[in-house]
Input
Amino acid sequence: MINGRIVKIEAKDYYVETDDGRIVRCNLPGRFKKQFHLKKDKLYKIDIAAVGDFLEIELNEDGTGTIQSIIERKNSIARKAPKIKGASRRGERLEQIVAANVDEIFIVSSVDEPPFNSKFIDRIIVAAESSHIRVNIIINKIDLDDDKYYLQWKELYEKIGYDVFPASAEEKAGLGNIEKRLGGKVNLFWGQSGVGKSSILNAIFPHFDLKVGDISGYSNKGQHTTVTSVMLKVAENTYVIDTPGIREMAPFGIMKIDLAHYFKEFEPFIQQCKFNTCTHYHEPECAVAKAVEKDLISVERYESYLNILETIEEDMNF
Ligand SMILES: Nc1nc2c(ncn2[C@@H]2O[C@H](COP(=O)(O)OP(=O)(O)O)[C@@H](O)[C@H]2O)c(=O)[nH]1
Ligand SMILES: [Mg+2]
Ligand SMILES: [Zn+2]
Output
């Protein structure tokens, strides 16, 4: 038995970096799928093994490997899988795991092309906070921002307690600060399509040669190409994970009552609401809503909160 870690998944092939530094292409025996669906929580999941998972594998004679066991995850970060054929039963949305066993996340955004989208960032923040993963925010393409529009957003997120890294992959600006923060950790780069995740990683690590500009995730024939996250080694114990472009983001498995806790700056006010079941929406004497009125919580973040609250289905018990 050999220990290793999944660094890339392509269709049914799991690429595993073994402890002795080799990359072995592995398959996942069907029995895993069966076990998975028998789990008592009855949530249908599509990702049994994800990039970042630690495994035990057995080597086959032809040099490939077979996954024998998946070691329990420290954490994982997920979203609701896009609505695709065969992916839902009775309208449920499945969990799509982006990566497992992650230390920090770098949410990548751009000031323009695509336009800065704080709602999208906030949705990823919720996913990260609910998995207890430390959040950093990169604002890329500042070369397109003559008016320094990004500064107000930098201030907003820094006030909450997140580190914000303005950058330009194009002009190689701000990259040193990002690189310095990666050491000794597994760092996930995630964000909307086209914001420059791959460009930033290429600019810091030119030998990666990641594909840039493929913002659709679909081939030109309209077929879905299976693109998943890929984990790249930067130095001993230091990894970055590049993720494929996504167009929509809905956090998975968040309960209405918990959502406000993933908006860190709401925390001091939550306990002061009149009702302990307060969802901070329409209830009387809500301390969160009052804090928004007094400018102690930003309107933008409160709108993000309400926006996500609305999308959490009432009837789901998770
Ligand atoms: N102006 C400008 N364009 C950039 C910058 N970084 C990336 N781009 C462009 O944005 C597009 C998408 O970049 P890509 O790295 O593929 O984004 P990803 O989908 O987040 O991985 C490409 O055409 C890049 O050349 C930047 O800092 N400034
Ligand atoms: Mg990319
Ligand atoms: Zn409230």
Summary: The radius of gyration is 21 Å. The longest strand covers residues 2-10.
